[in-house]
Amino acid sequence: MTVPANTQSQHNPNLARHVGHHDLALPGAGDLLHGTVLRPPDMRWNGHAYCGPVLQHIQVDPARHVPGVVDIVIRHNFVAVIASQPSQAAHARAQIQAQWRNAEPQRNAQLPNAGQSDATPPPAAPSTTLSYTWVNTPDDAPVWAIARHTSTGLTIWASTGRANQLRAEIASLCGLPAEQITLVANGLPGEGYDTAVDAALLAFGRGKPVRVQHDTTAAPTKITLELQADRTPASQYIERANIANARRPSVAALLCGVEHQYAGTIAQSNALYGIPVSQQSAGNAYSIGPANDTPTAASVFARESFFDELCALQNHDPVQARLDTITDPSGKALIESVAQQAGWFDQPQPGAGKGFACAQIIDNEQDPPQTVWSAWVAEVAVSGNAIDITRLTVGHTASSLASASDTDKIENQVRDTARGLLGAPDTFDQWADANANTAGALTLPEVSVVPQQSAVGTPLAWHPNAQLPAAAAIANAIYKATGTRIRQAPFSANSLLSSTETTENKRNKRWAYGLLGGIAAGAAGLVLTALPLRGAIAPVAVDTSIYSAAAIERGRLVALAGDCMVCHTAEGGIENTGGRALDTPFGTVYTTNITPDPKTGIGNWSYAAFERAMREGIHRDGRHLYPVFPYTAFAKISDADMQSLYAYLMTREPVSATPPKTELAFPYNARPLMAGWNTLFHKNEVYQPDPTQSTLWNRGAYLVQGAGHCTACHSPRNSMGAEKSGAENFLAGGFADGWEAPALNALSKAPIAWTEDTLFDYLRTGYSSVHGVASGPMGPVVQNLAQLPEADVRAMAHYLAAINPPPASAEPSALTAAKLEEASRSNVGVMTLPGEALFEGACAVCHDAREGPPLFGARPSLALNTNLHSDHPDNVIQVLMHGIDDPTGQGLGYMPGFKDSLNDAQIRELIEYMRARFAPGKPQWQGLDDKISSIRQMHGH
Q: A single GO molecular function, which one (predicted)?
């Protein structure tokens, strides 16, 4: 049975009201176990069964030793971990050493009754082959499921639109009668089919409820279709797709070896305007994407765009060509009606274009199957570099009528469909929480709805499948208006703008404007930067009432990304009131008060003064700021983000506080000399996206290079305190506040290569099971990143991973980790070192797996710790001296400092032992005594 959790769920006919004797109260957090699943790489199926990589060998002992692990579940190729906490389950999953081998190659997959014809392969003749892509962007909403198995049955709290199929599948996998399975809607908007089955499998026979959280950072799914016409005119089309046109079972069921009996779904006719279509997989099998991924929308977009392109090649009118080949009277009548109402054969105005697309959809999920014809005419107008959809004419006819709707409602649905295809611009400075309602700014097109013949005189009906031709109609209209084909949908605003210019024109414009603009801006900037004395900007009274809540929230995110409150808050002080001491090779610099207090803060700073400080390093009164304030990075922040940051800071609580004055020795106290430094080392330029890279990459680069100012710590500096130039020095490692900021490029000393996933874990939680715990100055950075939208942290991880990708021949990280751990355990040569006893007394209880479960939080592996493999001992000394008293996340635990309990000689002996045992391939550090003595004098973090 299925039980609704809210009033919205009650409208689903598959949701039953009878709850029987099951306890439907959601289990409390303290009662839950947590599960996570280890998926094979590159999962595939052939429309019936799993045919991707299969489990050849697995070693789970390292995972079982992780504290909190309850069980490791292995069923065919399904591997999962159950633990007391999510972090423990994730850590254990990373310790599993799984070797996968490719399954036996198969011939191209075929789906019965999925729209393919039985025609013979086309002859070797001149053909036309084009590829089209449809991008399904995953919902950012969290998706989770909880399952509990008792003597009375199995209860699953989940979200799905396929309740009957889900219940039947779980019943089959668990060997339970379907009536003993209760589905309770958890109220989440996402599709939780896979998560529900995972939770059910892990909870079955467990005695305690198990919660499974779906990975919400999944990349967009690209459904690629290749259409081929064997000759012109064509006698057969071949359609190859990477996603099966079938409702797949759960990933868990496929991995458990369940054979799937094909069930009909929504599909196109197996002919394209009277010509047979052979549907095939793009390779030997289909990719396994999200559970709700089906290529019907992609197939309509591809076929209708392809047919339009063939008509253009043959100089045929696309509407007349369809009318000449269609034999179905209802489809033919619909096309004629829509074309007539749209004035299809009227000559469009200059700079405008009309596009046509239609579809015959067979909904095999209905009983009996329902046929829906729909047709769209889209009209666009080009003005300068902008494209507007000016009019949409839509009609459809169905073999059985859907629910009646009023005309206004249908017109709004048509507009919503069009706007849904026109995403917001892919901008590098768009925050994940600031994307809402961007489509609402688009010009609303005129909508004409052609009524069905059978519905004349009655309220109009609207079928959801009637929207499928929209993307192709818009793309075909853009081609008519601009001569540019768009073969990927949904469209970004950037792709629409770019279609208004030819490649050559864009290249010429970019060169000309870039050169002239660069000369002008460079000359002006050089003159200003070189001035040793800058004028003051008059104080103002700031009216903060003009700032919207959205702008302030965006500014808060910029401040978090830029760690404003980290540097501008003294230890134990009030946030943003300054006073934190920053140690530099030139002396100690104290941070300033950036609250909106008019006397001691920035309360009387105009936006112009604020922007000048952020981009040029000039105080409101005209003083040069020292580059320990990373204006060299902040200059890359976009105007929108800079304005939002100003709005946020100016709306904080003003606090009167005067921090200590920075007093450097001569000549560093001569601030006018900074003008020359700026001329040599500073470029006041906003980040420019790389057009050859993805939006995700550019977003990450913008955050890393700009607000995040990662290079301020992680890049080496020259004798004048400037970051060294050159690609080889970018993120090549540096020092800040007495701590080493390790290299993130090819010079990284990490024993296991960083990946996007491990970087994401580390930046998001402060912990990676194969790298260690964030400490020192990185701790508060992670605490701020944890408050950013998850997509932004993912973008940073994506960009950083791209800087130093692991070699293709690299062995699995779990295998490397196991080898390093084993080497540290069996290194008998270190047992005679004097540091052995110190380690056993001070460190082993938390850091040695031979000592049983950890007593305090996580057990970071020292064999995998980058600090022990570094060329510099600074971080190891810092942590041993000062400990970790403010862990970045729950469950990581605290580490005591030994500054007051171990003398310098003991610290040295302990470090020499740890270096020899956990980094046996590295030479011993030199000059430890001096370094230990120096760091002992520093304040901790």
A: metal ion binding
Please list the residues that pair with 388 across neighbouring strands: 381
Cβ-based burial of 827 (10 A; exposed 0-12, middle 13-18, buried ≥19)? middle
Which two structure tokens, joined as six digits, stand for 689? 């996206």
Name the band, by pLDDT with cuts 50, 70 and 90, for residue 592. very high
Contacts of 457 (CB under 8 A, 6+ apart): none
Q: Is 586 exposed, middle or buried (0-12, 13-18, 19+ CB in 10 A)?
A: middle
In a domain, 303, yes or no: no
302-350 residue pLDDT tens: 889 989 998 998 899 999 999 998 888 888 999 999 999 999 988 888 8
CA dist 106 and 83 (Å) reads 38
Q: Which of 165-169, 492-496, 561-565, 930-934 comes out lowest in average pLDDT?
A: 492-496
Structure letter (DSSP) for residue 872: -
Q: Are 298 and 471 in contact (CB under 8 A)?
A: no
Bridge partners (DSSP) of residue 640 are none
Residues with Cβ within 8 Å of 311's Cβ and at least 6 positions away in sequence, in order, are 317, 318, 321
Radius of gyration of the chain (CA): 32
Nearest Cα neighbor of 86 from 41, 37, 157 is: 37
CB burial readout 720-752, b (16+ within 10 A) else e: eebbeeeeebbbbbbbbbbbbbbbbbeebbbbb
For residues 162 and 15, what is the distance between their CA atoms, to the nearest angstrom? 10
Residue 584's DSSP bridge partners are 587
Instruction: Kindly give, in sequence order, each residue whose CB lies less than 8 Å from that of residue 831, ignoring residues fewer than 6 positions away.
Output: none
Six-digit token pair at 384? Answer: 């300068």
Whether residue 853 sits in one domain with residue 704: yes
Which domain CATH number covers 53? 3.30.365.10
Judged against a pLDDT cut of 90, whether residue 711 lies above it is answered with yes
Rounded Cα distance, 100 and 76, in Å: 12
Please check whether residue 518 lies inside any domain of the structure: no
| Chain position carrying tokens 């081998």 | 101
Number of domains the chain is built from: 4
Same domain, 676 and 739: no
CA end-to-end distance (rounded Å), the chain? 55
375 domain residue, yes or no: yes
Residues 6+ apart with CB under 8 A from 6: 185, 187
- The DSSP element (H or E) to which 382 belongs, if any, is strand 370-383
- Burial code of 793-813, b = ≥16 C-beta within 10 A, e = fewer? bbbbbbbbbebbeeeeeeeeb
The Cα–Cα gap between 329 and 397 comes to 11
Angle at 223 between CA 482 and CA 114, to 5 degrees: 115
Residue (of 280, 299, 460, 296) closest to 363 by Cα position: 296
Question: Tens of pLDDT along 97-113?
Answer: 899 998 765 555 555 44
Beta bridge partners of 267: 362
Q: Please say which residue of 438, 471, 503 terminates a domain.
A: 503
Helical spans, DSSP H, in 530-673: 549-562, 564-567, 607-616, 631-634, 639-650
Mind giving me the DSSP string for 97-128? Answer: EEEEEPPPP-PPP--TTSS---PPPPPSS--E
Q: How far apart are CA 752 and CA 94, in angstroms?
A: 13
Domain ranges, residue 65: 2-109+136-217
**Tokens matching residue 639:** 């105007």
- Is 373 in contact with 397 (CB distance < 8 Å)? yes
What is the domain-level CATH number for residue 752?
A: 1.10.760.10
Asked if residue 176 and residue 100 are part of one domain, the reply reads: yes
Alpha-carbon span 547 to 544, nearest angstrom? 6
In a domain, 509, yes or no: no
C-alpha distances in Å from residue 533, one per residue of 391, 502, 663, 672, 673: 58, 47, 19, 6, 9
